[in-house]
Amino acid sequence: MTKFMVVGDTHGNTNFAYSMCHKAMNAKIDTIYQVGDFGLWDHVPDGVKYLDNLNRKSEECGVTWHWVPGNHENYDRLAVHRAVNGLDERGFVKIRDRILSTDKALVWTHDGLVFGAVGGAVSIDRNYRVLGRSYWEQERTTMEDVTVFKNQIKHVYNSVDVLLTHDSPTTLPTWPGFVKDDWASERNRQAMDMVYGAAHAAVAFHGHYHKHLAYKFEDTAVIGLSCDDEGAGHWGGDLRSYAIVDAKVRTEAGISVGTEFDIKVFDRSNVHGTKSYLV
């Protein structure tokens, strides 16, 4: 059995990230996957402090963060970390000892499960941000990212068990006022369709929309996670922002026939209660 945690957008919120460390430790989990807008802003002093403090807290709690780049990361700094530290044997970029980032596209294994990740999304408030200071051109999911991901699957694994992305596919549930009428955002979701279609994952997790969502992309069960409490309150989202996943191999006559995922989605303060999914 494999057990891990998946966390929504943290936005550099130290208190929220600390609480995730403690919840993982209490659940006897040592691996946290985070689906983007982690908060890599170490071009400013507060961003450096966030990384240093979270790394210390993670060490205390015995957990390691593995995060997928979102649209609110300093991609120039991510490139510096990659150039200085290189990639580990699985393809992760070391930001701190207990804080690792995927590249924009990566496939790896964890306790026999195949994981895939593709980062990026579009900042809908980009007209109010400053290029190179509060948003970066590399934030979007490019066709190169999609191709790199497809090639990793094709040449190594054929499919993945768990997919982690920041943005959603186009099957995202919508209602008036939820998804902005933005052509660049829709184009990014179309790129995600190609990612999800290539992955053939049993289950996928994403962030970006600051709401807990549950829906399908073809045969993939998709779970959208909310974000840190401050972000959820600002954008009107709910607070179901993290999931604990138990993955169990199913057997018939002693032969593996697939993996069952028992997923419980929580909010930090239990205001909205817990939702459970069996995939």
Q: What is the general shape?
A: globular
- The tally of helices reads 6
**Structural Rg:** 17 Å
CA(first)-CA(last) distance: 15 Å
Q: What's the rounded overall pLDDT mean?
A: 91
* Number of DSSP strand runs: 14
What does this structure look like?
With 279 residues, the protein is an alpha/beta fold. Helices cover 29% and strands 29% of the residues. It has helices spanning 14-26, 45-61, 75-85, 143-157, 183-199, 229-235, and strands at 2-7, 31-34, 64-67, 93-96, 99-101, 105-110, 113-118, 162-165, 203-206, 213-217, 220-224, 240-252, 255-267, 275-278. It has an 8-stranded mixed sheet. The chain has a 6-stranded mixed sheet with strand order 6-7-8-9-11-10, covered by helices on one side. The mean pLDDT is 91.
Helix and strand arrangement:
Layout: E1 2-7, H1 14-26, E2 31-34, H2 45-61, E3 64-67, H3 75-85, E4 93-96, E5 99-101, E6 105-110, E7 113-118, H4 143-157, E8 162-165, H5 183-199, E9 203-206, E10 213-217, E11 220-224, H6 229-235, E12 240-252, E13 255-267, E14 275-278
Parallel strand pairs: 1-2, 2-3, 3-5, 7-8, 8-9, 9-11
Antiparallel strand pairs: 1-12, 4-5, 6-7, 10-11, 12-13, 13-14
Helix pairs in contact: 1-2, 4-5
